[in-house]
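Let us practice reading a record.
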Amino acid sequence: MNKEIKIDPYGFREYDARWLYQKDINKAGIVNLGKGLGTQIIKHTKKNNPRVIVGHDYRSYSEEIKAALKKGLISTGCNIEDIGLSLSPTVYFAQFNLDADAVAMVTASHNENGWTGVKMGIKKGLTHAPEEMKELKDITLNKKFVEGHGNEKQIIGFQKVYKDDLINKNKINKKIKAIVACGNGTAGIFAPEILRGIGCEVIELDCELDWTFPKYNPNPEDLEMLHAISKAVKDNDADIGFGFDGDGDRVGVIDNKGNEIFSDKIGLLIARNLSSKHKNSKFIVDVKSTGLYSNDKVLKENNCETIYWKTGHSHIKRKVNTEKALAGFEKSGHFFFNKPLGFGYDDGINSAIQVCHLLVNQNKTMNEIMKELPNTFQTPTMAPFCKDEEKYQVVEDLVKQVTEIKNNKGKIDDQEIVEILTVNGIRFSFSDGSWGLIRASSNKPSLVVVTESPTSDERKKKIFNFIDDLLQKTGKIGEYDQKI
């Protein structure tokens, strides 16, 4: 075995672990990652032989990485239950279904080929948050490993158990014609069959598995993928288009006219649809999401509350769990459904199923349902460059400046700031429902800027100009990745 252990410390992100395979991490590094994770699981579960569910996505090198990871886990005393080729939500589901102690899923989700990573969790339905990642990094890099004797067994046929669970709970009584696009990622052997199983007429787009991703990366935020789905919806006169990411925990949605719908708006439609049956519920959304949730008339009528929280699947998942919320929605397309609709984790196929229920219940086209939401003018997510070692301080200083402007009743486009939220950078809102956001990116050397106004495109721009002006004055901001 390669004696040199290679493992780039920067691969331990805020809530995911991701590396370029061979360049930033090698097989020996993966074995050590397994030892680190095994040690951490044993420490938290206080068991000598905890049971760990392991799965992998369909990349050419995922199986050899899984083998190295298992080797490390077993050396600490973990008992592995390998469910084989899976989606991330299949592994999360298996932890509940098989009542296991932890999960480790080998996937780089929608990243380009060459990337690998592991999504992991100990408490059921949750994945590592920053504290756990920090602890794992410390154990792994400083080799604070425990030793034990674990074993491994293959769980045969688990894909079917996962598929049947979603199908049996979600039968629909109306034919919905759906384009199901998987970008040749792992969702291709799950999504079409499940959606057919609940009663949809499915037209497949790039559902055959191909780890070279010949057309584009399976990423529902990728314009190339969205345009392909849009064309297929129009060509086939479909009711809806779904695009799944590489490991099946996110979905993108295209309406019957071929328009892309931002995930935060889809979340609001699903929340509205659920609120009549589940009155007095809580919903969690991330700070990049539309301000429409705050004053939505349907949610208000059904006495539902929306909490804005930190961006990131791990953060939203935890908040859904601690608040016992019915669901959580993230602008990137991660949706979380808690009991009785799910187990609280993100599952792109379950999200698509909830959109199907929405279409059945409303008995209107997706485009008509969308038109019932108030129109808003929203910027894309913009990321101006800011050094990793400076970005958090820059945001902290801006929080103070904006708070001062609010306290002094300063105006932006003749509007006073009425509310400030600082759970994740600063989100400041105005009485008409307009808002602006500045936060530090959790995985890149950049900040994140978003603005929205239900009043006018002009106001949206003026709020952006106000933010951009503050940023330029810091002298620590570089180029934007995109700008309005």
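A brief commentary: The longest helix spans residues 388-407.
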